[in-house]
Design a protein that fits this description.
Distance between the termini: 41 Å
Number of strands: 0
Shape: globular
Protein name: MFS transporter
CATH class of the largest domain: Mainly Alpha
Largest sheet: none
Pfam family, one: MFS_1
Mean pLDDT: 84
Strand content: under 5%
Radius of gyration: 20 Å
Organism: Mucilaginibacter ginkgonis
Number of helices: 16
CATH topology of the largest domain: Growth Hormone, Chain: A
Main location: membrane
Structural class: mainly alpha
Order of helices and strands: HHHHHHHHHHHHHHHH
CATH superfamily of the largest domain: MFS general substrate transporter like domains
GO molecular function, one term: transmembrane transporter activity
CATH architecture of the largest domain: Up-down Bundle
Length: about 400
Protein backbone atom coordinates (compact mmCIF):
# COMPACT_ATOMS: atom_id res chain seq x y z
CA UNK A 1 0.00 0.00 0.00
CA UNK A 2 2.87 2.38 0.83
CA UNK A 3 4.41 1.75 -2.58
CA UNK A 4 1.12 2.70 -4.24
CA UNK A 5 1.07 5.94 -2.26
CA UNK A 6 4.65 6.71 -3.32
CA UNK A 7 3.73 6.31 -6.98
CA UNK A 8 0.58 8.39 -6.49
CA UNK A 9 2.54 11.28 -4.96
CA UNK A 10 5.25 11.05 -7.61
CA UNK A 11 2.77 11.33 -10.48
CA UNK A 12 0.23 13.76 -9.02
CA UNK A 13 -0.09 17.36 -10.15
CA UNK A 14 1.09 16.93 -13.74
CA UNK A 15 -0.96 18.53 -16.52
CA UNK A 16 -3.14 16.50 -18.89
CA UNK A 17 -1.11 17.65 -21.89
CA UNK A 18 2.06 16.41 -20.17
CA UNK A 19 0.46 12.97 -20.00
CA UNK A 20 -0.68 13.19 -23.63
CA UNK A 21 2.79 14.21 -24.73
CA UNK A 22 4.27 11.26 -22.85
CA UNK A 23 1.79 8.92 -24.56
CA UNK A 24 2.98 10.18 -27.94
CA UNK A 25 6.59 9.60 -26.89
CA UNK A 26 5.76 6.13 -25.56
CA UNK A 27 4.35 5.02 -28.91
CA UNK A 28 7.24 6.60 -30.78
CA UNK A 29 9.91 4.98 -28.62
CA UNK A 30 8.20 1.59 -28.57
CA UNK A 31 9.29 1.35 -32.19
CA UNK A 32 12.89 2.45 -31.54
CA UNK A 33 14.87 -0.50 -32.79
CA UNK A 34 16.88 0.56 -35.84
CA UNK A 35 19.60 2.53 -34.02
CA UNK A 36 20.29 -0.06 -31.26
CA UNK A 37 20.75 -2.83 -33.84
CA UNK A 38 22.26 -0.76 -36.66
CA UNK A 39 25.86 -1.63 -35.81
CA UNK A 40 25.11 -5.36 -35.72
CA UNK A 41 23.00 -5.05 -38.90
CA UNK A 42 25.83 -3.30 -40.77
CA UNK A 43 28.56 -5.72 -39.67
CA UNK A 44 26.65 -9.02 -39.65
CA UNK A 45 24.12 -8.63 -42.47
CA UNK A 46 25.65 -6.07 -44.86
CA UNK A 47 29.20 -7.23 -44.06
CA UNK A 48 30.59 -3.74 -43.52
CA UNK A 49 33.75 -3.34 -41.46
CA UNK A 50 33.58 -2.10 -37.87
CA UNK A 51 35.07 1.18 -39.10
CA UNK A 52 32.35 1.59 -41.74
CA UNK A 53 29.71 0.82 -39.13
CA UNK A 54 31.31 3.47 -36.91
CA UNK A 55 31.08 6.03 -39.74
CA UNK A 56 27.39 5.23 -40.25
CA UNK A 57 26.63 5.59 -36.54
CA UNK A 58 28.67 8.79 -36.51
CA UNK A 59 26.47 10.17 -39.29
CA UNK A 60 23.44 9.53 -37.10
CA UNK A 61 25.08 11.95 -34.67
CA UNK A 62 26.09 14.47 -37.33
CA UNK A 63 22.52 14.62 -38.62
CA UNK A 64 21.31 14.93 -35.05
CA UNK A 65 23.54 17.97 -34.41
CA UNK A 66 22.27 19.66 -37.56
CA UNK A 67 18.65 18.80 -36.83
CA UNK A 68 18.87 19.97 -33.22
CA UNK A 69 20.42 23.31 -34.21
CA UNK A 70 17.81 23.96 -36.91
CA UNK A 71 14.99 22.68 -34.71
CA UNK A 72 15.96 24.95 -31.80
CA UNK A 73 16.07 28.02 -34.04
CA UNK A 74 12.68 27.23 -35.58
CA UNK A 75 11.11 26.51 -32.18
CA UNK A 76 12.06 29.93 -30.78
CA UNK A 77 10.68 31.63 -33.89
CA UNK A 78 7.64 29.52 -34.80
CA UNK A 79 6.83 27.38 -31.75
CA UNK A 80 7.31 23.73 -30.90
CA UNK A 81 4.08 22.14 -32.17
CA UNK A 82 4.66 22.01 -35.93
CA UNK A 83 8.32 21.05 -35.51
CA UNK A 84 7.29 17.96 -33.53
CA UNK A 85 4.68 16.87 -36.06
CA UNK A 86 6.86 17.48 -39.11
CA UNK A 87 9.79 15.66 -37.53
CA UNK A 88 7.79 12.57 -36.60
CA UNK A 89 6.11 12.17 -39.99
CA UNK A 90 9.21 12.79 -42.12
CA UNK A 91 11.44 10.55 -40.00
CA UNK A 92 8.88 7.76 -40.21
CA UNK A 93 9.02 7.73 -43.99
CA UNK A 94 12.82 7.90 -43.98
CA UNK A 95 13.18 4.93 -41.61
CA UNK A 96 11.23 2.80 -44.08
CA UNK A 97 13.35 4.11 -46.98
CA UNK A 98 16.57 3.32 -45.08
CA UNK A 99 15.61 -0.34 -44.88
CA UNK A 100 15.88 -0.64 -48.67
CA UNK A 101 19.39 0.80 -48.92
CA UNK A 102 22.29 -1.65 -49.17
CA UNK A 103 25.24 0.40 -50.48
CA UNK A 104 27.55 2.17 -48.06
CA UNK A 105 27.19 5.62 -49.68
CA UNK A 106 23.40 5.32 -49.95
CA UNK A 107 23.06 4.30 -46.31
CA UNK A 108 25.34 7.15 -45.20
CA UNK A 109 23.28 9.72 -47.10
CA UNK A 110 19.95 8.37 -45.90
CA UNK A 111 21.13 8.11 -42.30
CA UNK A 112 22.24 11.75 -42.21
CA UNK A 113 18.95 13.13 -43.59
CA UNK A 114 16.92 10.77 -41.40
CA UNK A 115 18.75 11.81 -38.26
CA UNK A 116 18.40 15.50 -39.17
CA UNK A 117 14.62 15.17 -39.44
CA UNK A 118 14.32 12.83 -36.47
CA UNK A 119 16.29 14.93 -33.99
CA UNK A 120 14.76 18.27 -34.87
CA UNK A 121 12.04 16.76 -32.68
CA UNK A 122 14.13 16.76 -29.52
CA UNK A 123 14.48 20.52 -28.75
CA UNK A 124 10.85 20.98 -29.78
CA UNK A 125 9.76 18.22 -27.42
CA UNK A 126 11.90 19.54 -24.55
CA UNK A 127 10.35 22.97 -25.02
CA UNK A 128 6.87 21.43 -25.10
CA UNK A 129 7.47 19.62 -21.80
CA UNK A 130 8.45 22.92 -20.16
CA UNK A 131 5.43 24.68 -21.71
CA UNK A 132 2.98 22.15 -20.30
CA UNK A 133 4.50 22.13 -16.80
CA UNK A 134 4.90 24.54 -13.89
CA UNK A 135 8.04 25.59 -12.02
CA UNK A 136 7.06 23.21 -9.20
CA UNK A 137 6.79 20.09 -11.36
CA UNK A 138 9.21 20.68 -14.25
CA UNK A 139 11.72 18.03 -13.15
CA UNK A 140 8.95 15.47 -12.65
CA UNK A 141 7.44 16.42 -16.02
CA UNK A 142 10.77 15.69 -17.67
CA UNK A 143 11.01 12.46 -15.70
CA UNK A 144 7.54 11.47 -16.92
CA UNK A 145 8.76 12.13 -20.44
CA UNK A 146 11.85 10.01 -19.79
CA UNK A 147 9.65 7.30 -18.27
CA UNK A 148 7.72 7.14 -21.54
CA UNK A 149 10.96 7.10 -23.52
CA UNK A 150 12.44 4.28 -21.48
CA UNK A 151 9.29 2.21 -21.21
CA UNK A 152 9.00 2.46 -24.97
CA UNK A 153 12.70 1.70 -25.28
CA UNK A 154 12.26 -1.49 -23.27
CA UNK A 155 9.48 -2.63 -25.59
CA UNK A 156 11.48 -1.63 -28.66
CA UNK A 157 14.64 -3.32 -27.41
CA UNK A 158 12.95 -6.63 -26.63
CA UNK A 159 10.82 -6.62 -29.78
CA UNK A 160 13.78 -5.45 -31.85
CA UNK A 161 15.90 -8.34 -30.63
CA UNK A 162 13.15 -10.79 -31.57
CA UNK A 163 12.64 -9.24 -35.03
CA UNK A 164 16.37 -8.97 -35.69
CA UNK A 165 16.77 -12.68 -35.02
CA UNK A 166 14.24 -13.38 -37.79
CA UNK A 167 14.28 -10.53 -40.31
CA UNK A 168 16.17 -7.23 -39.97
CA UNK A 169 13.94 -5.61 -42.60
CA UNK A 170 11.06 -5.57 -40.12
CA UNK A 171 12.99 -3.24 -37.82
CA UNK A 172 12.83 -0.41 -40.33
CA UNK A 173 9.11 -0.84 -41.01
CA UNK A 174 8.15 -0.94 -37.33
CA UNK A 175 10.36 2.05 -36.45
CA UNK A 176 8.94 4.07 -39.34
CA UNK A 177 5.31 3.11 -38.67
CA UNK A 178 5.47 4.07 -34.98
CA UNK A 179 6.98 7.45 -35.89
CA UNK A 180 4.12 8.17 -38.27
CA UNK A 181 1.50 6.90 -35.82
CA UNK A 182 2.83 9.07 -33.00
CA UNK A 183 2.84 12.14 -35.25
CA UNK A 184 -0.80 11.57 -36.22
CA UNK A 185 -1.73 10.95 -32.57
CA UNK A 186 -0.11 14.23 -31.51
CA UNK A 187 -2.24 16.06 -34.09
CA UNK A 188 -5.35 14.31 -32.79
CA UNK A 189 -5.12 14.61 -29.01
CA UNK A 190 -2.99 17.69 -28.25
CA UNK A 191 -4.35 21.09 -29.31
CA UNK A 192 -2.00 23.46 -31.09
CA UNK A 193 -0.18 25.67 -28.57
CA UNK A 194 -1.17 29.26 -29.33
CA UNK A 195 1.64 31.14 -27.63
CA UNK A 196 4.56 30.96 -25.27
CA UNK A 197 4.02 31.44 -21.59
CA UNK A 198 4.06 35.15 -20.88
CA UNK A 199 6.02 37.22 -18.40
CA UNK A 200 8.67 34.61 -17.72
CA UNK A 201 11.95 36.08 -16.57
CA UNK A 202 15.50 34.85 -16.44
CA UNK A 203 16.26 33.40 -13.02
CA UNK A 204 19.95 34.15 -12.51
CA UNK A 205 22.09 37.15 -13.27
CA UNK A 206 24.62 35.00 -15.15
CA UNK A 207 22.22 34.16 -17.98
CA UNK A 208 21.75 36.18 -21.11
CA UNK A 209 19.57 35.88 -24.14
CA UNK A 210 21.70 33.16 -25.73
CA UNK A 211 23.13 29.88 -24.37
CA UNK A 212 26.27 30.57 -26.42
CA UNK A 213 27.10 33.48 -24.08
CA UNK A 214 26.33 31.56 -20.89
CA UNK A 215 29.79 30.44 -19.70
CA UNK A 216 28.55 28.14 -16.94
CA UNK A 217 26.16 26.46 -19.34
CA UNK A 218 28.87 25.96 -21.96
CA UNK A 219 31.09 24.23 -19.40
CA UNK A 220 28.12 22.10 -18.34
CA UNK A 221 27.55 21.16 -22.00
CA UNK A 222 31.19 20.09 -22.41
CA UNK A 223 30.87 17.77 -19.41
CA UNK A 224 27.59 16.39 -20.78
CA UNK A 225 29.40 15.53 -24.02
CA UNK A 226 32.00 13.52 -22.08
CA UNK A 227 29.31 11.61 -20.18
CA UNK A 228 27.15 11.05 -23.25
CA UNK A 229 30.17 9.76 -25.21
CA UNK A 230 30.44 6.97 -22.64
CA UNK A 231 26.71 6.40 -22.21
CA UNK A 232 26.12 5.86 -25.94
CA UNK A 233 28.55 2.94 -25.96
CA UNK A 234 25.91 0.87 -24.16
CA UNK A 235 23.75 1.04 -27.29
CA UNK A 236 26.40 1.11 -30.03
CA UNK A 237 29.55 -0.86 -29.20
CA UNK A 238 28.40 -2.82 -26.16
CA UNK A 239 25.87 -4.84 -28.23
CA UNK A 240 28.67 -5.68 -30.69
CA UNK A 241 30.91 -6.64 -27.76
CA UNK A 242 28.25 -8.98 -26.37
CA UNK A 243 27.68 -10.49 -29.81
CA UNK A 244 31.28 -10.95 -30.98
CA UNK A 245 33.19 -11.39 -27.71
CA UNK A 246 30.72 -12.95 -25.31
CA UNK A 247 28.65 -14.63 -28.08
CA UNK A 248 25.21 -13.57 -26.84
CA UNK A 249 22.21 -13.98 -29.15
CA UNK A 250 20.33 -10.92 -30.45
CA UNK A 251 17.34 -11.79 -28.26
CA UNK A 252 19.54 -11.71 -25.14
CA UNK A 253 21.00 -8.36 -26.15
CA UNK A 254 17.50 -7.04 -26.76
CA UNK A 255 16.37 -8.10 -23.29
CA UNK A 256 19.39 -6.41 -21.72
CA UNK A 257 18.41 -3.12 -23.37
CA UNK A 258 14.82 -3.72 -22.31
CA UNK A 259 16.03 -4.09 -18.71
CA UNK A 260 17.47 -0.58 -18.88
CA UNK A 261 14.19 0.85 -20.09
CA UNK A 262 12.09 -1.00 -17.52
CA UNK A 263 14.30 0.07 -14.63
CA UNK A 264 14.17 3.71 -15.63
CA UNK A 265 10.42 3.51 -16.26
CA UNK A 266 9.52 2.05 -12.85
CA UNK A 267 12.16 3.57 -10.57
CA UNK A 268 13.13 7.02 -11.85
CA UNK A 269 9.97 8.94 -10.96
CA UNK A 270 10.03 7.65 -7.38
CA UNK A 271 13.74 8.46 -7.13
CA UNK A 272 13.30 11.98 -8.49
CA UNK A 273 10.28 12.62 -6.25
CA UNK A 274 12.37 11.60 -3.25
CA UNK A 275 15.49 13.58 -4.19
CA UNK A 276 14.17 16.70 -5.91
CA UNK A 277 14.93 19.92 -4.05
CA UNK A 278 17.07 18.30 -1.33
CA UNK A 279 20.44 18.97 -2.97
CA UNK A 280 21.76 20.89 -5.93
CA UNK A 281 21.21 19.00 -9.23
CA UNK A 282 24.96 18.94 -9.92
CA UNK A 283 25.56 16.75 -6.87
CA UNK A 284 23.19 14.07 -8.13
CA UNK A 285 24.70 14.36 -11.60
CA UNK A 286 28.19 13.87 -10.21
CA UNK A 287 27.16 10.67 -8.40
CA UNK A 288 25.30 9.29 -11.42
CA UNK A 289 28.24 9.83 -13.76
CA UNK A 290 30.61 8.23 -11.23
CA UNK A 291 28.34 5.17 -11.00
CA UNK A 292 28.29 4.91 -14.78
CA UNK A 293 32.10 4.96 -14.81
CA UNK A 294 32.23 1.99 -12.48
CA UNK A 295 29.58 0.06 -14.40
CA UNK A 296 31.28 0.40 -17.79
CA UNK A 297 34.53 -1.10 -16.49
CA UNK A 298 32.93 -4.11 -14.77
CA UNK A 299 33.19 -6.22 -17.94
CA UNK A 300 36.99 -6.05 -17.58
CA UNK A 301 36.87 -7.41 -14.04
CA UNK A 302 34.18 -10.08 -14.15
CA UNK A 303 33.57 -13.26 -16.22
CA UNK A 304 31.64 -13.27 -19.51
CA UNK A 305 28.19 -14.32 -18.31
CA UNK A 306 24.66 -13.00 -18.69
CA UNK A 307 24.54 -12.33 -14.94
CA UNK A 308 27.52 -9.99 -15.24
CA UNK A 309 25.90 -8.23 -18.21
CA UNK A 310 22.77 -7.72 -16.08
CA UNK A 311 24.84 -6.27 -13.22
CA UNK A 312 26.53 -3.89 -15.67
CA UNK A 313 23.17 -2.73 -17.04
CA UNK A 314 21.66 -2.30 -13.57
CA UNK A 315 24.58 -0.14 -12.44
CA UNK A 316 24.55 1.95 -15.62
CA UNK A 317 20.76 2.37 -15.34
CA UNK A 318 21.04 3.76 -11.81
CA UNK A 319 23.81 6.06 -13.04
CA UNK A 320 21.47 7.28 -15.76
CA UNK A 321 18.62 7.84 -13.28
CA UNK A 322 20.76 9.96 -10.98
CA UNK A 323 22.34 11.97 -13.79
CA UNK A 324 19.91 12.65 -16.62
CA UNK A 325 16.75 13.98 -14.88
CA UNK A 326 18.86 16.51 -13.01
CA UNK A 327 20.73 17.49 -16.17
CA UNK A 328 17.33 18.49 -17.54
CA UNK A 329 16.56 20.33 -14.30
CA UNK A 330 19.84 22.24 -14.52
CA UNK A 331 19.45 23.54 -18.06
CA UNK A 332 15.74 24.38 -17.75
CA UNK A 333 16.21 26.72 -14.77
CA UNK A 334 18.70 28.75 -16.82
CA UNK A 335 16.11 29.61 -19.50
CA UNK A 336 13.04 31.68 -20.21
CA UNK A 337 10.27 31.16 -22.74
CA UNK A 338 12.08 33.15 -25.45
CA UNK A 339 15.39 31.27 -25.44
CA UNK A 340 14.37 27.81 -24.24
CA UNK A 341 14.43 26.35 -27.73
CA UNK A 342 18.08 27.35 -28.22
CA UNK A 343 19.08 26.08 -24.77
CA UNK A 344 17.28 22.81 -25.52
CA UNK A 345 18.96 22.67 -28.93
CA UNK A 346 22.44 23.10 -27.45
CA UNK A 347 21.70 20.38 -24.88
CA UNK A 348 20.50 18.12 -27.69
CA UNK A 349 23.58 19.01 -29.74
CA UNK A 350 25.77 17.92 -26.83
CA UNK A 351 24.22 14.46 -27.00
CA UNK A 352 24.40 14.50 -30.77
CA UNK A 353 28.07 15.42 -30.72
CA UNK A 354 28.69 12.47 -28.44
CA UNK A 355 26.65 10.33 -30.81
CA UNK A 356 29.09 11.28 -33.58
CA UNK A 357 32.22 10.76 -31.51
CA UNK A 358 31.15 7.62 -29.66
CA UNK A 359 31.14 5.11 -32.54
CA UNK A 360 33.93 6.79 -34.51
CA UNK A 361 36.41 6.94 -31.64
CA UNK A 362 35.32 3.64 -30.10
CA UNK A 363 35.68 1.75 -33.39
CA UNK A 364 39.24 3.01 -33.74
CA UNK A 365 40.10 2.03 -30.16
CA UNK A 366 38.65 -1.43 -30.75
CA UNK A 367 40.56 -1.86 -34.00
CA UNK A 368 43.95 -0.87 -32.61
CA UNK A 369 43.72 -1.77 -28.92
CA UNK A 370 40.69 -4.01 -28.39
CA UNK A 371 37.52 -3.90 -26.32
CA UNK A 372 39.33 -4.14 -22.98
CA UNK A 373 41.10 -0.85 -23.63
CA UNK A 374 37.81 0.73 -24.72
CA UNK A 375 36.14 -0.01 -21.38
CA UNK A 376 39.10 1.41 -19.44
CA UNK A 377 39.04 4.58 -21.57
CA UNK A 378 35.31 4.99 -21.02
CA UNK A 379 35.68 4.52 -17.27
CA UNK A 380 38.40 7.17 -17.13
CA UNK A 381 36.37 9.59 -19.29
CA UNK A 382 33.31 9.24 -17.06
CA UNK A 383 35.48 9.71 -13.98
CA UNK A 384 36.83 12.94 -15.49
CA UNK A 385 33.31 14.17 -16.23
CA UNK A 386 32.17 13.38 -12.68
CA UNK A 387 35.09 15.37 -11.29
CA UNK A 388 34.21 18.25 -13.62
CA UNK A 389 30.59 18.38 -12.42
CA UNK A 390 31.79 18.33 -8.80
CA UNK A 391 34.27 21.17 -9.40
CA UNK A 392 31.57 23.20 -11.18
CA UNK A 393 29.28 22.74 -8.18
CA UNK A 394 31.98 23.61 -5.61
CA UNK A 395 33.26 26.70 -7.43
CA UNK A 396 30.04 28.22 -8.79
CA UNK A 397 27.06 27.04 -6.75
CA UNK A 398 28.03 25.93 -3.25
CA UNK A 399 28.80 29.52 -2.19
CA UNK A 400 25.43 30.67 -3.55
CA UNK A 401 23.66 28.05 -1.44
CA UNK A 402 25.64 29.05 1.65
CA UNK A 403 24.75 32.74 1.09
CA UNK A 404 21.08 31.88 0.78
CA UNK A 405 21.25 29.80 3.97
CA UNK A 406 22.89 32.67 5.90
CA UNK A 407 20.27 35.16 4.74
Amino acid sequence: MRIIQLYKKAYSGLSLNSWYLSLVILINRAGTMVVPFMTIYCTQKLHFSITQAGVIMGLFGAGSITGAFIGGKVVDRRGFYDVQVGSLLSAGLLFILLGYQTGFAAICSCVFVLSLCNDAFRPANSTAVAHYSTSENKTRSYSLNRLAINLGWSVGGALGGFLAAHNYQLLFWVDGATNILSGLLLLKIIPRAKSFKAKETVETSEMGSSPYRDGVYLLFILLVVLFAFCFFQMFTMQPVFYKTQWHFRETTIGWLMALNGLMVAFIEMILVHHLEGKRHPLRYICFGVLLTSLSLTLVNWLPSTVVVAIVVMVGASFGEMFAMPFMNAFWVIRTNSHNRGQYAALYTMAWSTAQVLAPLVASQIIMYAGFTTLWWVLGATCLTASAGFYILYKTRFQKQLVTVAVK
